[in-house]
């Protein structure tokens, strides 16, 4: 769970690396580092914390002329976030950066230590550079040594290595962690995702698992276990500008405001007057399917959970949802009349990707709902529905959740059409509600201002309960996750009807209850649950289109006739509440502590 950038060519290398790492900082920001090799000179800089510390440290360093350079931004897995554990890791005359986990690193370390190698860091990565140098010293063949090294590695990795042994080359390998090569004539770039090389490279090759090789004299020499391999490039996307902050204080804030617009894109060409069309899906995907299983993590899991109500209610198909990290190790019973759906914003979440591979091995057909085209999960799936949310930079996911949920809602209707489980009038109602969704997502000044003002009353206490029923239970889980991620306050999402079975014991005036009370779904039931809490003096913030006398604070929503419109409108309220509380607490909204945007380790 780290970001990697590499460059070989004649341009100033420091700026290319630092700018690239800036774009990847969402992948991890415990520390960052760069290494540059120019002829016989190897330079290396590292700094703990955000990239700005590395910028400061390299202020007086410039690297003109031909050379090879690699950079890394880290999210710690093995070893604390210290400078010694920061990448690039150093041998005697080589440097390596790595994203992933070398699972057999302890065995390798033992072997190297027995041969007299001293380790400076606690990382799994450092074994790679020492292994390379051991093989190189024995063979005097840099690429041969790299090839031998790669063959010894078990686990997931994207690796770049530079060495004085061959100063005009960058060695690379990819297995299970993302990496691509960008081309602009003889200038060659590496990165963990498109963003750092947009505007620099023109063409791209997305490395596949098992690929390794080296770049030299403007050429890529590519191999896999069958030997030399050819590859073809494709044009690189050009929409980097969309990833700028546009005057908002934080990317998360910008992304909350963007939801209304991107939802239009999610629906474009898919929501028609008389039904749902997915050009990406053919009817065979669904032939013989009697059940759906969805696997995902975090926010994507909440979206999955919400959709399970829709699949069963609208498409009349059984739907089970599992947290990917649990699913992977439970020896699940899988039958091939089940469509296996994965949901992932990044498309790189290791647990979700592995769950998908398991399902494929069991012979299931797979569909991914993803925001990043060409990501590992997309490439692994039989079919994909892209969410079209655009780059999401805030670690706390917002527009990805909204668009995932919309795609899943559309999919429930698409399946209902295939299975003839929906009446024409009901279908029209759903389509009509979908088309109103962008309106339900608009953030008005009045709403934002109100939430900003009342947020000051929610900065303390001994915890938050977000409660809701039915579809609004997953939304409660998501509201609580948003708040805890960026405010560091304890928050739980709970089914409103379940409070009386235990958690109500916590109720007192310092327990903040955020009650999701839609008018169109189980209003009276939720109301009784909230009354029970109010009777125990819990502080209630009610979100509802219907005024509620017992609320200490009240946010009145507009929509009251369709559960999904209420869902999306209340989603925005919970996102803004988390945002405003986090800002008041002085936290870094976009890069909350201990988290990373893309979790590419188990
Ligand atoms: O990229 P993915 O959707 O697969 O990521 C899954 C989770 O790591 C992610 O949703 C995480 O929970 C977010 N930080 C939530 O805001």
Shape: globular
Strand elements, count: 27
Highest CATH level, the class of the largest domain: Alpha Beta
Provide the structure class: alpha/beta
CATH topology of the largest domain: Glutamine Phosphoribosylpyrophosphate, subunit 1, domain 1
How many alpha or pi helices? Answer: 16
Whole-number radius of gyration?
25 Å
Helix content: 25-40%
Strand proportion, as a percent range, falls in 15-25%
Q: Total domains, how many?
A: 3
Q: What is the CATH homologous superfamily assignment of the largest domain?
A: Aminohydrolase, N-terminal nucleophile (Ntn) domain
The biggest beta sheet, please?
Answer: 8 strands, antiparallel
**End-to-end distance:** 10 Å
Question: Could you name the key traits of this structure?
Answer:
602 residues; alpha/beta; Glutamine Phosphoribosylpyrophosphate, subunit 1, domain 1; Rossmann fold; 7-stranded antiparallel beta sheet; 16 helices; 24% strand; globular; binds 5-amino-5-deoxy-1-O-phosphono-D-mannitol
């Amino acid at each position: 769970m780290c970001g990697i950038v590499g460059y070989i060519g004649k341009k100033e290398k420091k700026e290319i690396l630092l700018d690239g790492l800036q774009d990847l900082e969402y992948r991890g920001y415990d520390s960052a580092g760069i290494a540059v090799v120019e002829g016989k000179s190897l330079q290396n800089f590292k700094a703990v914390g955000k990239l700005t510390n590395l910028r400061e440290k390299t202020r007086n360093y410039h690297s003109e002329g031909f050379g090879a350079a690699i950079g890394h931004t880290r999210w710690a897995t093995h070893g604390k976030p210290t400078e010694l554990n920061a990448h690039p890791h150093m041998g005697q005359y080589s440097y390596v950066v790595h994203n992933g986990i070398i699972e057999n690193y302890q065995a390798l370390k033992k072997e190297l230590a027995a041969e007299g190698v001293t380790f400076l860091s606690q990382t799994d990565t450092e074994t790679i550079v020492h292994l390379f140098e051991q093989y190189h010293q024995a063979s005097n063949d840099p690429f041969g040594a790299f090839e031998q090294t790669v063959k010894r590695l078990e686990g997931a990795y994207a690796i770049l290595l530079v060495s004085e042994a061959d100063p005009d080359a960058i060695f690379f390998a990819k297995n299970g962690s993302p990496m691509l090569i960008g081309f602009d004539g003889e200038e060659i770039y590496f990165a963990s995702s498109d963003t750092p090389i947009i505007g620099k490279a023109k063409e791209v090759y997305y490395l596949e698992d098992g690929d390794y090789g080296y770049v030299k004299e403007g050429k890529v020499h590519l191999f896999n276990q069958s030997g030399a391999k050819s590859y073809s490039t494709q044009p690189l996307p050009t929409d980097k500008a969309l990833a700028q902050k546009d005057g908002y204080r934080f990317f998360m804030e910008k992304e909350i405001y963007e939801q209304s617009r991107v939802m239009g894109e999610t629906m474009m060409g898919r929501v028609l007057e008389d039904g749902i069309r997915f050009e990406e899906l053919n009817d065979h995907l669904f032939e013989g399917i009697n059940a759906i299983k969805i696997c995902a993590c975090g926010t994507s899991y909440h979206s999955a959970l919400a959709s399970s109500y829709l699949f069963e209610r609208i498409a009349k198909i059984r739907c089970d949802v599992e947290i990917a990290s649990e699913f992977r190790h439970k020896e699940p019973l899988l039958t091939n009349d089940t469509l296996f759906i994965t949901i992932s914003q990044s498309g790189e979440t290791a647990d979700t990707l592995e769950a998908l591979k398991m399902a494929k091995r069991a012979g299931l057909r797979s569909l991914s709902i993803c925001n990043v085209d060409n990501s590992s999960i997309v490439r692994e799936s039989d079919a994909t529905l892209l969410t079209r949310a655009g780059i999401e930079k805030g670690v706390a996911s917002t527009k990805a959740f909204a668009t995932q949920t919309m795609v899943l809602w559309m999919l429930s209707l698409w399946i209902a059409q295939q299975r003839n489980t929906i009446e024409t009038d009901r279908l029209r109602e759903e389509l009509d509600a979908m088309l109103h969704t962008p309106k339900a997502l608009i953030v008005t000044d009045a709403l934002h201002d109100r939430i900003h003002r009342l947020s000051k009353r929610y900065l303390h206490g001994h915890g938050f309960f977000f409660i809701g029923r039915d579809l609004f239970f997953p939304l409660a889980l998501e509201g609580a996750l948003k708040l805890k991620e960026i405010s560091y306050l304890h928050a739980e999402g709970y089914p409103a009807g379940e409070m009386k079975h235990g958690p109500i014991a916590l109720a007192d005036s310092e327990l903040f209850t955020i009650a999701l009370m839609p008018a169109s779904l189980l209003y009276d039931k939720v109301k009784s649950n909230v009354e029970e809490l109010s009777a125990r003096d819990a502080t209630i913030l009610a979100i509802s289109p219907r005024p509620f006398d017992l609320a200490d604070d009240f946010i009145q929503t507009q929509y009251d006739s369709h559960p999904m419109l209420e869902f999306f409108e209340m989603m925005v309220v919970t996102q803004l509440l988390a945002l405003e509380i986090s800002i008041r607490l002085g936290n870094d909204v976009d890069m909350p502590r201990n988290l990373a945007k893309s979790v590419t380790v188990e």
